[in-house]
Amino acid sequence: MTIFGTRPTVTRLLLVTAFLGTALGMVALPATGAEPSGTPANAPVPAAPCVSVRGPDGLPTEAIRLRLGTCLEVHLREAAGSTGYAWSVRSVTGGLTFVGDVLIPPTGPSPTDPAPPGAPGDHIFTFRAVRPGSGSASFDLRRSWEPEPGQTVTVTAIIRPRL
What we know:
Blueprint: H1 10-23, E1 50-55, E2 64-67, E3 71-78, E4 85-94, E5 96-104, E6 121-129, E7 133-143, E8 151-160
Parallel strand pairs: 1-3, 2-8
Antiparallel strand pairs: 3-6, 4-7, 5-6, 7-8
């Protein structure tokens, strides 16, 4: 799997997957008994599907269509910490709710090589569609000591009821 031209190690991918799975509640187990379908009580509950978008330049200009319960992952390329710039959530409105975020640090050309200085990482923000209608999430790329953001981007979504 390649993220912005880098190759994360299997360990990093497993850690990120475990973190996102825990943060999103994707590893929840039923409390007791079997489900009506005959599923054993210790079987994991299937995760809601996720829609991923990458940016900032590749973010869709049209609203993203989501079903209620679907998660939305917004991947924003983030420069190395030495620049001072970092993405943050500016606002979340409507039927979206913020679940969490994780920063995937840059890696070198191979898993054992360090990343070159200034290599960008991937900042992943996760949201859940919790109410039918519309929603949006806005992000600022800023330095903490500067009053105005260097860049602001917004992702909008149309959330439809489940089938």
